[in-house]
Amino acid sequence: MDANYYSNYLRDYLADAGDARKDDEDFIIARADAASEEYEVQCRGGAPPPCAQELAMAVLMEGFD
After folding, report:
1. DSSP notation for 1-65
2. Nearest to 22 by CA among 36, 41, 8
3. Does residue 65 lie in a domain region?
4. How many domains, in total, are found in the chain?
5. Rounded Cα distance, 25 and 12, in Å
6. Which residues in the chain show pLDDT less than 50?
7. From CA 5, how far away is CA 31, in angstroms rounded?
8. Closest to 53 (Cα-Cα) out of 5, 12, 10, 15
9. N or C: which terminal CB in the chain sees fewer CB atoms within 10 Å?
10. Greatest alpha-carbon span in the chain
């Protein structure tokens, strides 16, 4: 999954939540890259795409309720 998908998702989430990090591009890019990498690792390891996506989203949203 493309890191842009994850960065856009996180940016929208932060904006909707009123989180000050919505403008922190370093934070958003780091999280999006980590999520994208998790997706790739899971897919290469044989996980079905929906499972890989769920695990990637867990990385992206770690620490958020």
Report:
1. --HHHHHHHHHHHHHHHT-GGGG-HHHHHHHHHHHHHHHHHHHHTT--HHHHHHHHHHHHTTT--
2. 8
3. no
4. 1
5. 13
6. none
7. 11
8. 5
9. C
10. 37
